[in-house]
Amino acid sequence: MEHSNHVAVIDFGSQYTQLIVRRVRELGYFAKLYRPSDLGQLGGPGAIILSGGPKSTADPDAPDIDFERLQAYDIPVLGVCYGMQILNKKFGGTVEASDRREYGPAQLMHGEVADELFRGVPNDTQIWMSHSDTVKQLPEGTKVLATNQDGTPVSLCWSEKFRGIQFHPEVTHSHEGTLILKNFLSMAEGLEEFRIEDLKADLLKEINDRVGDKQVVCGVSGGVDSTILAVLLKEAGVNVRAIFVDHGLMRKDEGDEVRRNFARMGVEIETVDASELFLNKLAGVEDPEKKRDIIGNLFVDVFWDAVGNAELLAQGTLYPDVIESASNEGSSASKIKTHHNRVDRILELQKQGKVLEPLAELFKDEVRELGIALGIPEDIVNRHPFPGPGLAVRCPGAIEEKKLRIIREADAIFIGKLREHGWYDRVWQSYAALIPVKTVGVKGDERSYEWAVSLRAVISEDAMTADWVELPYQILRESSHRILNEVAGVNRVLYDISTKPPASIEWE
Ligand code: XMP
């Protein structure tokens, strides 16, 4: 789909680039991500944002931009971090390299100049820095729109249409970042509105272009992402096979629920029961990354076995999965854990051009909105996220059937209680995990020496950060009571009050 007057975000490789796109979409405008080399093919942009990036402008292989072409658009341009530095150079100034990185909060001071960019932004507001180089010589005629608390320029204006900011307005730690972006976008004329219907149309077209008459296979787990992916592929009318691999790490009665839900949506799925295979391969394996690796690779094997000779594999990978695994080329983010859809086999297939990930630029809430636009029932769209490796990441250490049974029972009780008290939809994700530590307790008149169960309920916007939920004590009390009485092998129930970061949402 051709877009006119949209916001073109040029990606110089920062881990925050997609967040810029997201903020612009949140402000109600259509935004699209481009590589610097795409500059000649932006269609008709109404505004351009140059992102940050991990390189120094002095690096021989630093990404460049065709400045003449950029100027020829004659529309508002905002350079962010690296984007500001490259613009300062293009206008004839210099950038000083430094091996010290400024990372974290700073204060924005813009009292001297009343520029539209900072309209309504209080002085002294917190901004977020993440850079090492800084602008040095400013080209003649450059206006310093703002400085930090030490007087170092953090915002420049080189000409009527070109502005730059050294800080990252897209992260929430820049307290007025969204307002600054909004002010910038208000300098553009008649920007195209963002509608989820447009996104849907774009994705359908992209899928059709990419798939053509090839056969595409996708794995479905019953989770929101893979469900929406399968429905999207069906809607695109491509030749698709949806396969549900039961890896034996599902929750209580989950397989039946998944089949029921797909039947409701009219999507045919094939089930492969590989639970024994998975549990055998995982037996005795304790290391979290090894477990992830085994599950991820085996998943692809079982999958490929089931499909025979498919030409394309579609995955419901979302943007946060891509950043946290940080294994995509050119990524500057460091690896936190290998997400299920980024194991070696998948990366290999990716190199061969056999992986299709239409949702990889989206955040969870955007995917949910897309799901609604695709007509998927709300209870399916609003299902809590469930990780690809399933209960394996909620069972620290080696996986055993008796541990999985405890998790399943405890989880079903806890989720049931959340639903009963009307809290399921108020929580972003919730589950029970097993803590494989034995402690002493008393059951009846007997000494018990059994494991603990941890309950977790979090709210999050996009899984990149999360906070624990202050659930009513009654829910915790009733859940704990039932788990202690009904789930054999458990004598202790804990509630997890850890934020992400530093914890993650799952246990592994
Ligand atoms: P963490 O534990 O990384 O979880 O804070 C963030 C979100 O991602 C889910 N998660 C996964 N999803 N494959 C997935 O599809 C995975 O390997 C995976 N690991 C974690 C997790 O449930 C949470 O919603």
Notes on the protein architecture:
The structure is a single chain. The protein contains 15 helices and 20 strands. The protein is of the alpha/beta class. The protein has 3 domains: 179 residues, Class I glutamine amidotransferase (GATase) domain (Rossmann fold, 3-Layer(aba) Sandwich); 186 residues, HUPs (Rossmann fold, 3-Layer(aba) Sandwich); 96 residues, GMP Synthetase, Chain A, domain 3 (2-Layer Sandwich), CATH 3.30.300.10. The chain has a 7-stranded mixed sheet with strand order 2-1-3-4-11-10-9. A hairpin with a 5-residue loop joins strand 18 and strand 19. Helix 5 crosses helix 6. The longest helix is centred in the middle third of the chain and has 20 residues. It starts with a strand and ends in a 13-residue tail after the last strand. About 1% of the residues have low confidence. Xanthosine-5'-monophosphate binds next to helix 10. Xanthosine-5'-monophosphate (XMP) binds next to helix 10.
